[in-house]
Design goal:
By secondary structure, this protein is of the alpha+beta class. The protein has one domain: 6-pyruvoyl tetrahydropterin synthase/QueD (Tetrahydropterin Synthase, Chain A, 2-Layer Sandwich), CATH 3.30.479.10. Helix content is about 20%, strand content about 35%. A five-stranded mixed sheet has the order 3-1-2-4-5. A hairpin with a 2-residue loop joins strand 4 and strand 5. The chain is elongated and about 55 Å long.
Length: about 120
């Protein structure tokens, strides 16, 4: 049996999007209540009944969430223009070696706008 396990994280952060055209409102400093989901796909272990220990996902993600929470993301290496698309790739590169079976990262900047990334660079 195969299944996908997903764990959610949240953080608050500010940013600007300097690569956007002059006059675009998102070039100004603004912030979001970000939500990040990390999904692992794999076989359900028949002995214990799960794909993965949620604790492993938290262990990989918590230092990154702590770094981003209440930050100005543009000051973080690799996030100089932190669109949700580039953020998803940044997270992927940081955690992929720690989380076998990683299959998707979603970054939500609002309840109605998000990016889904499956590791294709």
């Amino acid at each position: 049996m195969k299944a996908t396990l997903t764990k959610e994280f949240r953080f608050e952060a500010a940013h600007t999007l300097p690569s956007l055209p002059e006059g675009h409102k998102c070039r100004n400093v603004h912030g979001h209540s970000f939500r990040v989901t990390v999904s692992i796909k794999g076989d359900v272990d028949p002995k214990i009944g799960w794909v993965y220990d949620h604790k492993k996902i938290s262990h990989a993600m918590t230092p990154l969430i702590d770094m981003l929470d209440h930050s100005y993301m543009n000051d973080i290496e690799g996030l100089e223009s932190p669109t949700i698309e580039l953020m998803a790739g940044w997270f992927w590169k940081k955690i992929e070696d720690q989380l076998p079976g990683l299959c998707e990262i979603c970054i939500y900047e609002t309840p109605t706008a998000w990016c889904s990334f499956t590791g294709e660079f």
